[in-house]
Specification:
PAS domain S-box-containing protein; 6 helices; globular; binds adenosine-5'-diphosphate; alpha+beta; single chain
Length: 267
Amino acid sequence: SEDVTARVQRQDALLAALLSEREAVERLEQADRMKDALVSTVSHELRTPLTSVLGYATMLADGDLGEIPPLVAQTLERIINNGERLRSLVEDLLVLSRVNAGQLDLASEPLDLRDVVRSAYDVVAPQLETRDLEVRVALPDDEALVDGDAGMLERVVLNLLTNALKFTHDGGQVDVSLRLESDEVVIEVSDTGLGIPVDEQDQLFTQFFRSSIAKREAIQGTGLGLSIAHAIVEQHGGVIGATSEPSIGSTFLVVLPRLGVRAQQPA
Ligand code: ADP
């Protein structure tokens, strides 16, 4: 009867719609994979020439090829600074493509987080010389042992520290501390900076997020660092979070599982 024909036609239409939707999803997924591969390849290929450019510029700046006039030294410093910025962007893109491909292969060995915090601090120390910022680092006397990837955890701390410095005006204060709990180690980075609008805070750890304050103040950045930090911390079995108030400041917390204190020798 007509009734049956109409029903069959409806079902056919439904099936066709479902199939074309699945095709669309597959095409999108393929495009996504191609984008990841492109990002990964390009950042790999950028690495070598960039290292070479920075190497030669550093050689010149160090006076290895003869003495250089002050104006040239200044120019070289700019080249090197911008080269470093480019390098850190390329490194971020590389890690990001690994995260997105589910291939963030982390080392897993016992390490003392105090060393991680110290080396992150050493990286930013030179730039503090030109800033009027009070930066305090508080480390416990006992070792802060966790299982993980020292280089990647340094990347996390460095990102939090760099952000704190970037989003805090001169005259402000940045505090970095490590705290030992019975089963956890807590890294805290707080600043008296610009803060993050409350209604934007839930996006903090998503890729490419930049707050309206960061955009308004034209503070440079890609919005990649925190999403990478989030992935690294999660893979360590930890959590990362933040509280912030505009014009008051921000506090970022990283909580990592603490490795048992090395067993005492039985008496
Ligand atoms: P980037 O700093 O390169 O933009 P991040 O992923 O590290 O990327 O940070 C994302 C955004 O989160 C920043 O653009 C900024 O809006 C906000 N943010 C992060 N840390 C702070 C901070 N300490 N104070 C204020 N805003 C911050």
